[in-house]
Amino acid sequence: MNNWNQSTMRNDDRNDDKPPYSRIFVVCNKQLRVEDLKPAFEVFGQIEDIHMPRDRNTGESKGIAYIKYTKTSSAAMAIKEMHLKTIQNSNKPIRVMVATHKNDNHNTNEDKYKRLFIKVHKEITESELRQHFSAFGHVESVHLQRDKLTDECRGFAYVNYNTFLDAARAFEECDRKYKAIFATPKEELKRSRNSIENFTDNFHSSNSSIIKDNFSDHYNQARGEIVKRDSLTSLIRTKPHNCDTVSVTCSPQVPQKFIERLFNIIPGMTSCKYTSDSFNGYCKAIISYEDEKSAAHAVDRLNNFEFPSGEIISVKPNDNPLSKAANNLSSIVNSFKNAIDSANPDLVQLAEVIAQASTLIKEATSGPRELKLESSQSEFCSVSLPPPQPLANINSRVAQRCFLVFKPHPPPVSILKDAFCRFGDLIDVSTFPNKTFGFAKYASIRAAQEAIKTLHGATLGDIRLKVLEADERPSKEDKINADDENGIDQYTDRKRMKLQDSSSS
Are 10 and 52 contacting, i.e. CB atoms less than 8 angstroms apart? Predict the structure, then answer.
């Protein structure tokens, strides 16, 4: 008996095929054998394995077969040429399709296999992409993903082909810089927030590009093999920062478990301290790692990561001196306890511990003025601001409004008021739940213009601001409030041209 039936398919891991979609499913006559299928299908490429399941009780063939190729394009060619054709020793047409995993229905619809997801630089055009990818087959469409407000390319695109074979050739032969993969079907992306759990599970098992750059030979694509954390950490090439924790902000907010699962991909995560702000529609987390190298790698790989359902995370080193002081104090307390527990405590050592603790407390409570500003107000601003000034009366006449855009999410209103009140005559600042824009109202044009001049393009902590002049006398259709989200969206659309002009400056 030949060895074509001794298949790893019996482990039922068809969904982990490498390369993707390189295994086909054949529905055929029960009288056919491996010797009948092999000559008919090996003309399309090198075959790794043929498996024909049999009934456990009777030993009779079930009339189906799985054929695994070494290349995706070979499987695609076999489907194109053999579907609904007859072969030797069979007078009935066979059905040939991509072999899906056990939880999917076998489906001859090729739409799932025609679309590629690629990474691109932000200055590329759709015509450039079409020119390159047309070399592999007929391109039906190219779609650059753009920011809804600024219209700036977000760094990735979709290329849709006419056939699975064309897409497979492009997947194998396109320039490696595009890092092409088969795109998730559109209908699967239209899911509820709860579906993020499915995404994070797949994220761990699919060797995503976040980890693949450094761990391609070591990261666990299936579920069976376990790789030691230390061996993974040794492969990290990111230059470490002077801290082992990172600060994470996500907008819109997502549950804690999804943040934990994402950051646990980086080896060495030890804790996740999570908080959420439902009113402003974002969440924050402090993630700790066992070493500075892992923390730096988390910043490098996960900053500006976007979940499939649209949530974007911002990641930066958490180098707040207060946090460092707290960690050092914990170490000192442990040393103090060890000394007390010993039979003959070293009094000199205890004195040194107390002196170190006093120094840390003094530094934490009497640090520079900028540190106090960061921890108590707006995590400071990237531009110099004048001193705070009193707010104008809430009933004052509005002389001019400023249109504010925040990326990736709005900061707390108290922080915005602290920044915008410094130009005088500020009446109020407003933001809207789950929106990335707001308004500042001034009682004088001078103050509004100073705010625009100073704060446009500035950052508050890790949040970038765009400050534009709003309409002085809005029409009825422009008069919106926090309870009219449709009006907000319409107003935002009318501001896009101004945003595009300002972003280019």
Answer: no
